[in-house]
Amino acid sequence: MTTTIDYYELLECERTADAATIKSSYRKLAMKYHPDKNGGCKDYEAKFKAVSEAYDVLKDPQKRAAYDRFGHAAFQGGGGGGGAGPQDFSGFSDIFESVFGEFMGGAGRGGGRQAQRRGADLRYDMEISLEEAFHGRSTEVTVDVSAACDTCHGSGARPGTQAKTCAQCGGHGKVRAQQGFFVVERACPVCHGSGEVIADPCPDCRGEGRVEKTKTLAVEIPPGVDEGTRIRLAGEGEAGARGAPPGDLYIFLHIKRHAIFEREGTTLFARAPISFTTAALGGTLSIPGLDGRTHEMKIPAGIQSGKQLRQRGAGMPVLQGRGAGDLVVQIDVETPTKLSTRQRELLELFRETETGDECPASQGFFAKLKSAIAG
């Protein structure tokens, strides 16, 4: 661990805080700084890792006791407490395992090579139409990524040669050092935890075991995906160094704004203007759906603006499930702005026959208005 920021300060806790307080504070901060919630921001990612590192120590009573007494030096070799340089204190193995077993990452007695570091995960943002989200589609993405070197097959060593066991750590990948009353373990500074040293590196990857490549990958988008849906392509992320497992590639989907339909979950919404005569007399509304069918909706006589008509099962399909949502159409009654002479005459005749009962809401409003003014 290389950070020098106080762990209690990172977790925004007092040094006297109990385990429950530390845990609660960590959860709040982890949620705040999690990379998935901050668009992959590097600053937030670093903060998230630092907070996680602090909690990993303070949640363990034995690690916390060591940290309270020696600070960061409790987990670093070569300083404080009169410790010697890197050595193998196999005689302290049982004590070390019981106190720092979790910190060691479960290396086991007698040491062990540091676990191979898995390659980094990658993110790819893809924009698709609402129609593509409805039906799904097969597509391809092209990404620049670190891939295993073809020359050395990911080993990092020149073809015909191989890596040698690290003389510093004896192939364990870790070295132990006495730190005051404790024996602490850290990654070998020579092989950086791999347990091996490459004397003759591959000329193409320079010993890394990976090179930059452009890959074209097939992506299957299932029907019913929504904004922010993630598609995971296992093993298509960054290659790990020297043959370590690769990370994953995550496709984040974004839905383009549609000219007609809006979406909320599996429900599709649309607004449909109708003439005032259709609103008064009733009729039928024909709506072409994303499913390729024309949906007929009955308009009841006397319908008002803002009323909604619902067609069951004509909405978005359920992602990785059965059935579909609904299509909801909101009615907007349109008042004509251009009338012919004949139309105007007919409307004048209609107005002469009005009694007020045709529009009860209007009649009730003006009655209330008169009453309020009189009062």
From TrEMBL:
Please state the residue ranges covered by CR-type zinc fingers: 136-214
- What cofactor does this one take? Zn(2+)
Swiss-Prot/TrEMBL keywords: Chaperone, Cytoplasm, DNA replication, Metal-binding, Repeat, Stress response, Zinc, Zinc-finger
Q: Which positions fall inside the CR-type domain? A: 136-214
Question: What GO cellular-component annotations does this UniProt entry give?
Answer: cytoplasm
Q: Which PROSITE patterns match?
A: DNAJ_1, DNAJ_2, ZF_CR
User: What are the GO BP annotations of this UniProt entry?
Assistant: DNA replication; protein refolding; response to heat
Q: Which GO terms describe its molecular function?
A: ATP binding; heat shock protein binding; unfolded protein binding; zinc ion binding
- In the record for this protein, the CXXCXGXG motif repeats are positioned at 149-156, 166-173, 188-195, 202-209
Fetch the CDD domains from UniProt. DnaJ (cd06257), DnaJ_C (cd10747), DnaJ_zf (cd10719)
Q: Which domain of life is it from?
A: Bacteria
Binding locations of Zn(2+) 1: C149, C152, C202, C205
Q: Which Gene3D superfamilies match?
A: DnaJ domain (1.10.287.110), Heat shock protein DnaJ, cysteine-rich domain (2.10.230.10), Urease metallochaperone UreE, N-terminal domain (2.60.260.20)
Carries keyword Zinc?
Answer: yes
Record-linked Pfam families: DnaJ, DnaJ_C, DnaJ_CXXCXGXG
Where in or outside the cell is it found? Cytoplasm
| Swiss-Prot/TrEMBL domain comment | The J domain is necessary and sufficient to stimulate DnaK ATPase activity. Zinc center 1 plays an important role in the autonomous, DnaK-independent chaperone activity of DnaJ. Zinc center 2 is essential for interaction with DnaK and for DnaJ activity.
How does the record describe its quaternary structure? Homodimer.
Stated role = Participates actively in the response to hyperosmotic and heat shock by preventing the aggregation of stress-denatured proteins and by disaggregating proteins, also in an autonomous, DnaK-independent fashion. Unfolded proteins bind initially to DnaJ; upon interaction with the DnaJ-bound protein, DnaK hydrolyzes its bound ATP, resulting in the formation of a stable complex. GrpE releases ADP from DnaK; ATP binding to DnaK triggers the release of the substrate protein, thus completing the reaction cycle.
Q: NCBIfam families, per this entry?
A: DnaJ_bact, PRK10767.1
Q: Which family does it belong to?
A: Belongs to the DnaJ family.
* Protein's name in the database: Chaperone protein DnaJ
**Species:** Sphingomonas jinjuensis
Q: State the gene name recorded for this protein.
A: dnaJ
